[in-house]
Amino acid sequence: MTTYLDHAATTPPRPQARAALTRWLEAANASATHLAGQAAREVVEEAREQVAGALRCSPHEVVFTSGGTEADNLAVKGVVWAARDGHRGVPHLVTTAVEHPAVLDPARWLAQRGDVRLTVVPPRADGQVEVEAVLDAVGPDTVLVSVMTANNEVGAVNDIPALAEELRSRGIRLHTDAVQAVATLEVDVTSWGVDALSLSAHKFGGPQGVGVAVLRRGLPVVPVAHGGGQDRGVRSGTFAVGLDAACAAALTAAVAERAALRTRLRRWTDRLATALTALDGVTRSGPAVAEQRLASHVHLLLEAVDPAALSLALDRAGVAASSGSACGAGAATASPVLEACGLRGTPLRLSLGWSTTAADVEHAIEVLSATVPRLRSRLGHVPSAGVS
Amino acid sequence: MAQVLVAMSGGVDSAVAAALLVEQGHEVTGVHLKLADLPLDEQLPGHGCCTLDDAQDARRAAQVLGIPFYVWDMSEVFVREVQTPFADSYAAGLTPNPCVTCNERVKYAALLARARELGFDALATGHHARLRRGAAPVVAPGPGVALHRAVDGAKDQSYVLYVATPEQLAHTLLPVGELTKSQVRALATERGLRVANKPDSYDVCFIPDGDTAGYLSQRLPTAAGPIVDADGVVLGGHDGVWRFTVGQRRGLGLDHHERRFVTDVDAATATVRVGPREQLACRWAELSAVSWTTGTAPEGPVRVQVRAHGRSVPARLVPARSDAVHPGAGAGEVRVVLDEPVHGLALGQAAVLYTPDDAVCLGGGRVVAAERPAGWPLAATAGPSGG
């Protein structure tokens, strides 16, 4: 029996999502004009309305994608390219060093192509991006700012409403990647005033392979995938009826349960942090103020612990947690987020979700309290043998 | 039953090694090493052993066998201990064997040490060589192990394993050495391993296209010098001694009817000497960085092999002579006197000793000095000992 504490990577599907996916796995093509197609389209449009209701935006502003990466790419490339069409000179794009690669890589790619001039804003050491730092980076040519709602590694929450208000007064568009945030944080597109927002269903109890791009009315977007012209041509491709329905069902359930989940997970992540930072050489990363951290994340830095030894030991003890991100080949690599924060040490992210139990938390504490001191004493002061 | 870490390259030998260990009842964990620091466009299919496809093939084999699998990034130690010294050695006029260095510094040092730290009893690889305890094949780690040539003589890799110490061999398993290559492929097919028919790799893993001179030309500065004959007459020129290795005949760019071979390389003066084949004859070599699989230097008659896929010749060990060493490569620790000459012995190569019946690998060392035709300064170059 594995204690699964990697909900930030993927969280199990909720029963409502399973039911919706099973119910609508077989569906007609939702663009077909016959009655069967109309029935399928009704499922998609109801899903769109549910998502809009959960995020407090218009259903016309909801586009289903293949996941968070496609939603981020659509927001960044689509908005930049649309802005470039009416722009004299090279437009300016601002993002941050702690963004997910699904934002940072398209941004860098656009800059390499000469489509934008790019500014990457550094975070504070606790992973937060200061509104002032972003505002200092924008200028008259800035067409888009992309700042994540909360960081996927250290769990630092950014003040998106305050940033949106400042940027709105300057006439600059704001996209936020809310993939990590939506499971435990209130996300309100309308009151926040963001122009674009990305979600990934498998982070809130939906299936893998579906996500949401919220693109506000009046935001010009050039499509990234051209084809049959579905979703007003912004995102071509046959509607994934079952996936869209399951995504909406999961989001509805997640939003209904969110306040209670947040309270519960906050208690447990604090319990984990208190117990584990009592060990020698273990510190918690992220903002000191609880409200500025995701309730679901505990990010620890372990001094003098070999990351490969840690991942082996946790697997053997039946605890699934993230001890680093992986490169293309699958090797653990140094985290650009931690580098940007100036943090060193072996990272360990414990992330909790809707199916986490108190027993999971206690088992993780028991295992880590035994494992970390053992790995430290074994390693001594020898630096890890080249494994990053 | 032992806890065994098996290094899985993505090839058929290490996949079958893992399968055999599982079937022997060991608790097996697979690890794929990211070694060479290749640019992403060289990690594409069909490029040596450090590609994304190889990691994927190794992962898939581990999945089929039902064992845990990890990828460890050891590129930092590999670049420091293997790739960089490889280029430095060529710049110093030596001819290194990077696979030997990799086994010595990466697999038997960094990787085995790490495996032991992590609680594994043994490290297994897919090398074609046999471990025997007395006459019995080794199926569990423990002391008293001898390193034998593989059953499949054409695939024998004991040469590149000579750097293993008795302590390291006691924690090593080589499950496929008892099998021929075709048996390995048949076992892989029976077990549904899709690497069963994957082609063998022959090249240096970090030079996937096999163009060593091209690889070095991107990393080493141009250092032009003359190509001379035995009497010092200049026959031509070159742009770097690293393009040449003793015994080489191609790529000399000489307009000459006679067959000429590189007979010596002097990095200090950037001079390459060429001559007829008889000038390649070499009857002794002096070795540094010696290492014995048995723990002690062999006594009495031995056989010596100076190339990975060469044949061995009868020889004996005598004390080293201090006046005959490569200044940058350290003093010779022992001299090997050959009963019959070998042709084209380059400095930097490994000389590996076997028992008189050619069955057991006893260890060996790096050639730091060797017999050269008269009138030539004996290896008067400076350079590092690595490579």
The number of helical segments of chain B is: 7
Query: How is the main sheet of chain A built?
Result: 7 strands, mixed
- Indicate the proportion of strand residues of chain A: 5-15%
Mean pLDDT of chain A: 94
Sheet/helix structural class of chain A: alpha/beta
User: How many distinct beta strands of chain A?
Assistant: 14
Q: Classify the beta-strand content of chain B into a percent band.
A: 25-35%
- The largest sheet of chain A has its strands arranged as 2-8-7-6-5-3-4
Describe the protein in words.
- The complex is a heterodimer of chains A (388) and B (387).
- Mean pLDDT of chain A is 94; it is low at 380-388.
- The longest helix of chain A is centred in the C-terminal third of the chain and has 37 residues, at 241-277.
- By secondary structure, chain A is an alpha/beta fold.
- Chain A is built from eleven helices and 14 strands.
- In chain A, strand 5 (142-146), helix 6 (160-169) and strand 6 (173-177) form a beta-alpha-beta unit.
- In chain A, helix 3 (68-85) packs parallel to helix 4 (101-113).
- Chain A is globular and about 65 Å long.
- Chain B is α+β, with helices and mostly antiparallel strands.
- Chain B is 21% helix and 27% strand.
- Chain B is built from seven helices and 18 strands.
- Chain B has helices at residues 12-23, 52-65, 75-91, 98-117, 166-169, 181-190, 212-217, and strands at 3-7, 27-34, 69-73, 122-124, 129-133, 136-137, 146-149, 172-173, 225-228, 234-238, 261-266, 271-275, 281-292, 301-305, 313-319, 334-343, 350-354, 360-370.
- In chain B, the strands form three sheets. In chain B, strands 13-16-15-14-17-18 form a six-stranded antiparallel beta barrel. A five-stranded parallel sheet of chain B has the order 3-2-1-4-8, sandwiched between helices.
- Chain A binds chain B through residues 306, 308-309, 311-313, 315, 326-333, 378-379, 385-388, and chain B through 29, 32, 34, 40, 43, 52, 55, 59, 68, 70-78, 80, 110-111, 113-114, 117-118.
